[in-house]
């Protein structure tokens, strides 16, 4: 299958949105930032060149001035809180979690509050008071308590639920991970997932489609996919890349 054949379904779906006089809302979230790296430079370059707004989930306990100085030079970047230290507290037979039931809720919430305060000090107006749980997992008991810690929104993976006690801005297509596979995901599979999300919203456009990236583990396949994705969507009248702040406002 050629590249054009791989991307044709997305083009056709966006054409459908255009013909209906509508624009599919897209947003981009990248996880696990700590410090400036060559991989981060690549991400900043391709999103900047494509004018795609990017929200970077930063790990508060491990970051500092170096990353802040670099990101504050980019006008298309917002920052969210990526847990506290991205430490796994789950048992060996469980899925990894930092924000699970393995520790007292007061302790976990205190760390999250410290993380928000830390990033507020580093990023000021660039910070979105949105929590991005490490591994996209958080105990259900903690979610109603996030607002009291200063968070306005939560971003995990999967379609939102109507009864959430806090605003959700989720991601839906993970460029790197799927069912145990890490990296080198077939581009045809990624396009198919994106098209499926768009089709689900055509009749009920109740939430934007979030693309999730992890710059530190990207290889040539991931960079190629993102570059082509931005080319296909950036100037298409049926699509609109939006910032997390605009979507939450």
Automatic annotation (TrEMBL):
Coiled coil feature spans: none
UniProt superkingdom: Bacteria
GO biological process, one term: carbohydrate metabolic process
Protein name, UniProt field: Polysaccharide deacetylase
Origin species: Rhizobium altiplani
């Amino acid at each position: 299958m050629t590249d054009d054949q791989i991307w044709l379904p997305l083009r056709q779906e966006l054409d459908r949105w255009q013909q209906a006089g509508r624009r599919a809302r897209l947003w981009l979230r990248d996880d696990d930032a700590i410090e400036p790296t060559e991989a981060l430079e690549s991400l900043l370059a391709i999103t900047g060149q494509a004018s795609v707004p990017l929200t970077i989930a930063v790990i508060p306990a491990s970051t500092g001035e170096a990353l802040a100085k670099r990101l504050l030079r980019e006008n298309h970047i917002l920052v969210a809180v990526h847990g506290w230290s991205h430490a796994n507290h789950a048992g060996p037979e469980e899925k990894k979690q930092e924000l699970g039931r393995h520790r007292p809720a007061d302790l976990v919430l205190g760390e999250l509050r410290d993380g928000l305060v830390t990033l507020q000090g580093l990023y000021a107006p660039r910070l979105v008071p949105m929590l991005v749980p490490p591994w996209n997992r958080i105990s259900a008991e903690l979610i109603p308590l996030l607002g009291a810690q200063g968070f306005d929104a939560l971003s995990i993976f999967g379609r939102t639920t109507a009864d959430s006690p806090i605003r959700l801005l989720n991601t839906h297509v993970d460029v790197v991970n799927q069912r145990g596979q890490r990296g080198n995901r077939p581009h045809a599979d990624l396009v198919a997932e994106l098209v499926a999300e768009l089709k689900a919203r055509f009749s009920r456009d109740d939430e934007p489609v979030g693309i999730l990236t992890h710059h530190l583990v990207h290889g040539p396949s991931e960079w190629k996919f993102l570059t082509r994705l931005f080319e296909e969507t950036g100037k298409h009248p049926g699509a609109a890349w939006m910032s997390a702040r605009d979507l939450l406002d």
